[in-house]
Design goal:
This protein has 468 residues and is of the alpha+beta class. The chain has helices at 4-26, 138-147, 184-198, 247-250, 254-259, 313-316, 322-336, 388-400, 409-413, 443-452; strands at 33-37, 96-104, 109-116, 121-125, 130-134, 165-170, 175-180, 206-212, 221-226, 230-235, 245-246, 269-271, 279-285, 305-311, 352-357, 363-367, 371-375, 381-385, 405-406, 418-424, 427-433, 462-463.
Length: 468
């Protein structure tokens, strides 16, 4: 029988997924925010300092789901009584109404939030020395005022540096508490709110990190590898994150994959719009140099890392990033096992470097490791293996032919009988043509692909069920 705690966790997980959908929808409705380095700040329980000048705007979703475990109090604006006017008849709009702080010592995560009477929220990352400001957040503060008093916090286990430490205060109501945060909905909400405003958290000295936002299938989750060879993986709903392991025991080739990348050849983002895929942040850390430029808005002093936005990686990733991403994805799948819902396969596999769909309904897919999948018009599938040299020769010749164009316009439209996708240096490339011969520029290469479709009876071939 499933333990009661697991059942409750799964119910909270479902609520967290509902939150993710409503939070993303709210992105288009909220106002702007500001992100800037914190020059100097007093280290108090929550802090009340304001941030400095406005910098790059960020989009931030609602903190809590529309439907929560505790119904909001019957108030039209806020449960907090209005502050007493000063003798001059003015209101102290800077008076804090909600303050909270959460952290995970093992990850050196330390973030705090303060909301005031004016509906302004300030979020601070103490580790990185960054602050972000969000205006017109009265609804968020009302939700916090509603949920925090009913939150049950157990004492932090002694010596547990992987546990989530949480504290809050509502000064005008003289209410405060601190302890071990284990509520999955609030954990997911706070992580999402601060990540959206300040960026994802990776431990200091991270050489590669990947954070994915929540979707209808999974909660938000993060991976980080430090320069000491420690591999961290955790879910946004974890009240006690996994202890780090030595990368050599899980993925000994990962550091070499990171070192093989040339950051100058990578773009700032690889994004394709797909349904039910997370927004992802890939972080690559380069060694600091004396000539390093001043940090850009939103970056901490001394942070020489490269941040890359990713969406729908099966279609968007270039060849250069594919090996590293496949390794990170495999490591995260281990952490996600037993959580969330099964995700449907993508139209093109993440491992694919080539996908050819022919007018007779046949299909050929080549993967990075040489795995070859051939499907005939009747739906019967055969798998075989090519050498990496053969795969590289085919894809390079097609890319050099000049007929392929970046994007997925023809593939999405589905109006032409023949469609060929090849993963290039900047993402997926395509060429499509009506019934008949392929364009002259790639005619010889397509004939090679047609010949490959005729194989499948060799010693390395495995035939699957029809309709696989």
């Amino acid at each position: 029988m499933m333990p009661r705690r697991r059942i409750v966790r799964d119910l909270y997980f479902a609520l967290a997924l509902m939150f993710a959908a409503s939070a993303l929808a709210a992105c288009t409705r909220d106002g702007g925010s500001a992100l800037q380095p914190v020059e100097s700040r007093q280290q108090t329980a929550f802090g009340s300092e304001g941030a400095g000048a406005t910098a790059t705007p960020f989009i931030l979703p609602t903190l809590l789901p529309t439907i929560t475990r505790s119904a909001p109090a019957a108030a039209t604006a806020t449960r907090t009584p209005p502050p007493e006017p000063s003798p001059q008849g003015t209101v102290d709009f800077d008076q804090p109404v909600v303050e909270l702080r959460y952290g995970i010592p093992a990850l050196q995560l330390d973030r705090r939030l303060e909301g005031n009477v004016n509906g302004q929220i300030t979020v601070v990352d103490e580790t990185r020395g960054l602050a972000a400001i969000r205006q017109n957040q009265g609804g968020v503060l009302l939700e916090l005022q509603s949920i925090l008093p009913s939150l049950e916090l157990e004492p932090l286990p002694e010596g547990c540096d992987t546990c989530v430490a949480f504290s809050y205060a509502m000064p005008l109501e003289n209410a405060e508490s601190e302890g071990w945060l284990q509520d999955p909905v609030l954990l997911a909400s706070v992580e999402n709110f601060t990540a959206a405003l300040l960026g994802p958290h990776f431990p200091p000295a991270t050489t590669v990190g990947l954070r994915r936002s929540a979707t209808a299938y999974d909660v938000a989750h993060t991976l980080a590898l430090t320069d000491e060879g420690l591999l961290y993986r955790w879910l946004a709903t974890d009240g006690n994150v996994e202890a780090p392991i030595a990368v050599g025991s899980a993925a000994p080739e990962l550091p070499a994959l990171v070192d093989s990348l040339d950051g100058d050849e990578l773009a700032a983002q690889y994004v394709v719009n797909c349904v039910s895929t997370p927004l992802e942040t890939l972080y690559l850390n380069s060694a600091p140099t004396p000539e390093a430029a001043a940090p850009a808005p939103g970056e901490a002093e001394g942070d020489d890392g490269q941040t890359i936005r990713v969406a729908c990686p099966a279609f968007s990733l270039p060849q250069s990033l594919q090996p590293l991403y496949l390794q990170l994805d495999a490591l995260l799948q281990e952490t996600l096992a037993g959580h969330g819902l099964p995700r449907p396969p993508t139209e093109v596999a993440l491992e694919a470097v080539l996908d050819y769909r022919r007018e007779d309904g046949a299909r050929l897919a080549l993967s990075l490791d040489g795995a070859t999948r051939i499907t005939n018009g009747a739906g019967e599938t055969v798998t075989t293996t090519l050498s990496s040299t053969q795969v590289m020769s085919i894809t390079t010749a097609l890319l050099d032919g000049g007929a392929l164009q970046p994007g997925l316009t023809a593939f999405t439209a589905g109006e032409l009988e023949n469609v060929l996708l090849v993963r290039g240096s900047q993402g997926m490339m395509e060429v499509a043509w009506p019934a008949g011969e392929a364009p002259e520029a790639i005619l010889e290469e397509v004939r090679v692909l047609d010949e490959l479709m005729e194989i499948g009876e060799g010693p390395n071939s495995v035939r699957s069920e029809t309709g696989d």
